[in-house]
Amino acid sequence: MFNTSELRQAIDQLVDELVRRGIAARITILGGAAIALAYESTRQSTHDVDALVHPEAEVLAAAANVAARLGYPDDWLQNNVRIFLPHHGEIDEMTIASSGDVRVSVGGPRLLLAMKLKASRGRGDLDDIRTLVRHLGVSTVAEGEEIFEHYYRDDELSERGRQLLAAALRP
After folding, report:
1. How many alpha carbons lie under 13 Å from residue 41 in its C-beta half-sphere?
2. Which residue ranges make up each domain of the chain?
3. Between the CA of residue 113 and those of 124, 126, 129, what are the distances in Å?
4. How much is the pLDDT for 66?
């Protein structure tokens, strides 16, 4: 489990490691870690970091070195999030760290909201959805559904997703 400070430390060290190795890399963090890092979340921790990474082998090898130095689990940086990406809409992102040819970004709030609504797993997702709707100024379920449909137009928002969205909009 990582708190926000530990997460930032790991990312900074990963960037430094990649620069030291002379590897041009892109890392796009998605999910709870992205929300904790960039969107004034109440989230205090995350179990792992879901990210799109390129070049995959080199970034994951550097991440394993960082893990060994910091005493973190080897798989703290995970790249299996690709299977959850929407088939429509852009992967909007915001840069949070860069050095040399290494860039780390987080998914944009609209993308993250759509992904959280798609997952609709419970309390953790509710807190993240609440953070994102506040950040975006979403005030109705219909507005949230519109964002979801922009990214997942072939899917229907689940009843659970609709309930979490409605709960997140309550004061």
Report:
1. 25
2. 2-107, 111-169
3. 13, 10, 6
4. 97
Using 70 as the pLDDT threshold, list the residues of the chain that sit under it: none
What is the rounded distance in angstroms from the CA atom of residue 86 to the CA atom of residue 52?
13
pLDDT, tens digit (0-9, with 9 covering 90-100), for 132-150:
999 999 999 999 999 999 9
Q: Which residue has the tokens 């940086």?
A: 77
pLDDT score at 45? 74
35, amino acid identity: I
Q: Report how far residue 84's alpha carbon sits from residue 16's, in angstroms, rounded to the nearest whole number.
A: 29
